[in-house]
Write a structure and sequence with these properties.
Number of strands: 8
Strand order of the largest sheet: 2-1-3-4-5-6
Structural class: alpha/beta
Largest sheet: 6 strands, mixed
Length: 444
Amino acid sequence: LNLQIAAQNGTAPVGPLRQLCADEVNEEYGNVTMVMDFREGGGGSHGLHKICDLLDQHGIPYVVRELKISDYVFFVRNKLAPIIIERKTVDDVANSLADGRWERQKRNMRKAQLVLGGKDRKCQMCYLIEGDTNKRIVHGGNVGRASWNQSSEDVENAINELPRLGFSVIRSKSHMGSVVLLAQVARDVSWKAENGSIDAELTYPEFLEKMKHVPEKEGDPPTEARHQFPAAPVVDDSSTTNQAASTIPLASSTATGSPPSNDFPSHDEDETNPIPDQASEDLKKLSLAKLKTRCKDRDEKLSGAKKDLIARLLKPRKPELLILRSKSGQYVPKVPSCNAALLVALLLNHRSGTDGLAKENIMLFAEETGISKEPIGGNGGWYDGWAGMKDMTHGDPALVYLGKGKKYSLTTQPSGKAGVNVAQALHILAHRENLCKCGNYVAT
């Protein structure tokens, strides 16, 4: 009978290819849903479901549909928010430059900007660039494939030109890093919608209908300065933005319901800790051998020229716990490194007295810290940032405790030497290097 009724009603509308599998959504996302194009990551037979798995782990409200413009859009209830994101790996950029899609996609996004943002172009167009160009060079010096004939300079020049053409750019190391940034954008859209500072007026069918009537000239590059070099929707994990991100006081932003503000000076700007000129002059008088002896006492690298050794000695001394562990032959994660990011992620996200965290959650939190040198999720090979966890669950004392249900937490004993103490020391180092993006002010 049900089949007969369905046949009489005609063909049912096609549902989403995939969506968040959860009965409840974290309140920080409000009424915002992210829609991802079904061709993302190469489609269902390639990386689409890997990205969806990461979105599930992060709890981002999402659905997978066919999008005509860009890879990601955001809905406030059923209305389209004025922000469109195109995600591209550096390989994708090279391929798009080679086959001409690069220019076509930019034109279409600029036309969509007019529809969603009006004549003032109040719609953010953003490219999310994933990966390191220098690590994707193949035989012949080209990126991705030799047949695309795109050098690393060609790819980086194309990316660097985007702001002048009206696009903001955020960068990530991997799929995992991209999901972290997309989650930040979704939360930002939710905050703006709640505070009435974002105009979401069109349904998707209405948007597509308006796109049909946009003149081709509206896809031309902007000529007015106000439409060039736009701000990115969120802070990414590139070296140019870590310094600002590392000093944002998270507690004040969440408590007041206002966007974060940079209230604290970065370590480099702290006028209370100027580089002592006299100390530098005194160190220059020492022999290379004596400088190495002092570096060894502080657990600093011994390689390099005399000026390199002096620069290390002028930095604040490492936390004594890390120096003592190194001298006694115990394992000490480097900063930056994946292992340091994993420990700090546990420090920041696991509450004492509760069950530990699962591997998938720890890896996402670790990617968020910005402390890893390489992508936590790996570069597509067998290795990923989790490989070092085995080193940290062994030793005397171990830094990480593996509990029931494969849940991980920092060890707390012996007091002053446990995993939680090492993680705190690494957290301080990460802030000194302007790497950590946790948002908390840490006295260094």
